[in-house]
Amino acid sequence: MIGQIEGGLCALVGVTHGDTEAEAVRLADRLVKLRVMPDEQGRPNRSVLDTAESILVISQFTLYADTRRGNRPGYTDAAEPAVAEPLIDSVVERIKSHGVKVSTGRFGANMDVRLLNQGPITILLDIDGQATG
């Protein structure tokens, strides 16, 4: 077991060309403040900051798969690992700076990911016009 959380958010994070440290910080800030956790009435109205829940961050270059042609996705829109890994690390460190417990997968590894999605709520966060989920 590399990383796990009991409750909170599972953030699949993709990095593309041109993504910066500033965008990594903004993504982390949005994740901790995103009001999708249930309140007392069960409505998605609270953040992980409000609920003391955790965030599981998993680097996911396949979010940038190009499937417009053929049957084999292309990944040229995904940033190279030397660029992506430090930005993923920045997201994790910024989440921690908010006092939120964060767990991660292993960068570049082939992982078995299990997710129990309550709701289900799945949201694509867009930071400066770049799809980041």
Q: Could you list some keywords that capture this structure?
A:
133 residues, alpha/beta, D-tyrosyl-trna(Tyr) Deacylase, Chain: A, two-stranded antiparallel sheet, 3 helices, 7 strands
Give the overall shape: globular
Radius of gyration (Å): 15 Å
What order do the strands of the largest sheet run in, or round the barrel if closed?
A: 1-4-5
* Span of the ends, CA to CA: 23 Å
The fold-level CATH name is D-tyrosyl-trna(Tyr) Deacylase, Chain: A
- Show unreliable segments: none
CATH class categorisation: Alpha Beta
| Category from helices, strands and their pairing | alpha/beta
How many individual β-strands? Answer: 7
Q: What do the pLDDT scores average to?
A: 90
- SSE order in H/E notation? EHEEHEHEEE
Strand content: 15-25%
Query: What profile does the largest beta sheet have?
Result: 3 strands, parallel
Describe what this molecule looks like in 3D.
With 133 residues, the chain is an alpha/beta fold. It has a single domain, classed as D-tyrosyl-trna(Tyr) Deacylase, Chain: A (3-Layer(bba) Sandwich), CATH 3.50.80. It has helices at 21-33, 48-51, 81-97, and strands at 8-13, 37-38, 44-46, 54-59, 102-104, 125-127, 130-132. The strands form three sheets. The chain has a three-stranded parallel beta sheet, with helices on one face. Strands 2-3 form a two-stranded antiparallel ribbon. A two-stranded antiparallel sheet has the order 6-7. Helix 1 (21-33) crosses helix 3 (81-97). The protein is globular. The mean pLDDT is 90.
